Amino acid sequence: MKQSEVKELSTAELQEELGKSQKAYSDLRMAHAMSPLENPLQLRKVRRSIARIATELTKRELNG
Prior knowledge:
By secondary structure, the protein is mainly alpha-helical. 83% of the residues lie in helices and 0% in strands. The mean pLDDT is 95.
């Protein structure tokens, strides 16, 4: 998810997307532990998406 997409979502949507992304990351890590993923860069992509969403949520919380 790109930063421009993250900014357009409401706070409730961001929290929902954060939960989905964290679940997806957990599932990918588990699958990668069992047998190597075909594209291990998926892990980086999801992890960075989680960070973008969390950063935007924190920014909104601090700004009011």
